[in-house]
Amino acid sequence: MENILENLTIGVFAKAAGVNVETIRFYQRKGLLSEPDKPYGSIRRYGGADVARVQFVKSAQRLGFSLDEIGELLKLEDGTHCSEAAEIAALRLADVRARQADLTRMEVALSKLVSECCTQHGHVSCPLIDALHSG
User: Fold this and answer.
1) How far is residue 134 CA from its own chain's centroid?
2) Which of 44, 60, 114, 120 is geometrically suited to a Cys-Cys bond with 65, CB 3.0 to 4.6 A?
């Protein structure tokens, strides 16, 4: 499998990493992925380490890390900076918990308004619309 993921063109690399070519170029511009040398008269080639790096970035994005945070995590990827990585993750976790609390408040408010809509038959004014106008 390792030999299959060596000497890849950007298109094959993107496909192996599960992204499109523009994502690869964007990650290069952001400094998340290095751009390999281009031999004279040839094209750039990528390898398995590049595929793994893009997959790392995508995994971190799915956990809600920003590209800047992912850049910081990539600087710590040698495994000897666990406390620094934990600090970055703790900030992300606090943000997730705050968003979750906001979503819970939104769910309660919307649930109440939907219930009121269902019980207000025959009235000209909709409780949901009224609440949005006054809120």
Assistant:
1) 35
2) 60
